[in-house]
Amino acid sequence: MDVHLRELRYFVAVAEDLNVTRAAQRLFVSQPALSKQLRVLERQLGFPLFERVRSGVVLTRQGRALLPFARELLGRWNEGVEAARAAAPSGTLVVGMQTAVGRGLQQEALRRFREAMPGWEISLRLVAWTDPSGGLADGTSDVAFVWLPAAPGLETRVLSVERRFVALPDSHPLAAGAEIPFAELRDEPFIALPAEAGPLRDFWLGRDARDDDPAVAVTASTADETFEAITSGLGIALLAEGNASLYKRPGVVYRPVGGLAPAELAVAWRAGDHRPHVRAFLDALP
């Protein structure tokens, strides 16, 4: 039986809140995605973990029996990760990211970090959009470059504020415009982040500027999947102005979008994390 740590975290969160909607908000995932993962876990286990009641859910007898072991397993895993990192002779800083950073930020920060922490290695880790924390939530990253809104439990510092652009095929009727009002994109099919991305998915669908549901044609977990869908004519996607120059692709054009609030790129770390190598990296950034 292959049960993932993410599923155990979901189970523990719902068991603590006894409400799927509140737990989903705390986990920074959508309620349907959380419910789906709980059903998958119950099928793997072969018994129900929760019963629905008017106020939310309650644990079944099996769920109450499993809960302390799930908490212990998650706690032991986090302790193991920290112990493994502490065993390194000098250390490795793991930097999570979901898209290319560029903007003159990453290279200079890494140079300053090496000067401040000689002997330390740096591991750049590409994290799928299913984890909006950039690997911070499960402890696999020490710091991360993320787009706001950030997942709960993180501290952030904004590094760049940029206009939102749209990426669309060069054959698209709107591609000839110098700037495209968002109202003209409302009925277009969008390429969306996975449901697990929660509010970040909504932001890149422009839901802050619309009161209806966007038409989602494709769900993409990586930048490569997004641009493959665009060049195939399956839909369009919003992105930050800086990423428009980082992700140039044949057959794809980028135009600024009017009527949208800007995007914010930030560095993130776990709240209360004062380890020297984390602070050194944060100090290395502008």
TrEMBL record:
Where in the numbering of this chain does the HTH lysR-type domain appear?
1-60
Q: Which domain of life is it from?
A: Bacteria
UniProt KW Transcription keyword? yes
Q: Which InterPro entries match?
A: LysR_HTH_N, LysR_subst-bd, WH-like_DNA-bd_sf, WH_DNA-bd_sf
One GO cellular component term of this record is:
protein-DNA complex
Which CDD domains does the UniProt record give? PBP2_LTTR_aromatics_like (cd08414)
GO molecular function terms attached to this record: DNA binding; DNA-binding transcription factor activity
Q: Does the keyword Cytoplasm apply?
A: no
For this protein, the record's PROSITE patterns field holds: HTH_LYSR (PS50931)
Alphabetical keyword list: DNA-binding, Transcription, Transcription regulation
Q: Which family does it belong to?
A: Belongs to the LysR transcriptional regulatory family.
Q: What is this protein called?
A: LysR family transcriptional regulator
From what organism does this protein derive? Answer: Planobispora longispora
